[in-house]
Specification:
It is built from 11 helices and 14 strands. By secondary structure, it is α/β, with parallel strands linked by helices. InterPro entries: LysR_HTH_N, LysR_subst-bd, WH-like_DNA-bd_sf, WH_DNA-bd_sf.
Length: about 300
Amino acid sequence: MEIKQLSDFVAVCRAGSFAAASRRINTSQPGLGYQIKQLEAELDVILLHRHSRGVSLTEAGTAFLQKAEKILDAVTEARATMVPFRVGRRIVIRVGLSPTPARLVGRAIAALSATLPNVEFTLREGYSEDLIDLAMRGDLDMAITLSHDSRPGFRQRPLYREKLCLIGKPGAQDLPIGPISLHKLADIPIVAGPRGHVVRERLIAATKAAGVALNIVQELDPSGLRRSLVVYGDQRTVAAPGVFIDEYERDLLSVWPIEPAITLEVSLLAAATVPTDLEEAISLAVTEAMAPFGGLMDPV
């Protein structure tokens, strides 16, 4: 039995299907299936029911999942105990960033990296749940996401809150000066992110509670394409301002905070192997980076 088999099994259980798990952990679906079959053959039990909707745990699978998670937690703790012995060695910290905090936090980590010659940061971007799965597999040391749920074997630290805003070109004659109400927002055509994404779902919930419906003219999954339509076209979108921080600073875009406020909380999930002083240094660097944007971004 191998650690990879256990982590693959846990990933499939959390994702609910082989297809979803393969996307989240960036591995092939046949490879995942092979690992699980090998595990079932070694244990001589069926762990998962396969069906058209995905997978579900058998009774044996439910019992084994609890043990597998404990083993993976123990492996994480064992790795953590080795950190103090890495005297004089360069530490590599693999950080996952969800799209909302990626630009602000990426900027903060780049500034911090210049002051820490013995630490190398590698960054990758992805959606929150995908990054958390990668962290749980041991493929990331930190995940900075919109999820604030704790995970076994990891430390969770809130970093900051950010207000959702309408984003568009400056000088709009049809928009108010200052915050925009949900009722006014409903009259404005916008391009939106994909269904199921945290920002989209938070926005839908707020407008539904207010008794209004959004005027979504286009739904786009690739964030780069949505950025191009907003920055270089005449489209508008709703997002956390940190997503467009570079364009906002260069006066290419304006932001209209939504009232009543809809906030997102950005959190840091750190493996036990990450030194706590490094985690604290990242938190302080992020606080410094968001200082110019007070009112739109605030420390938790």
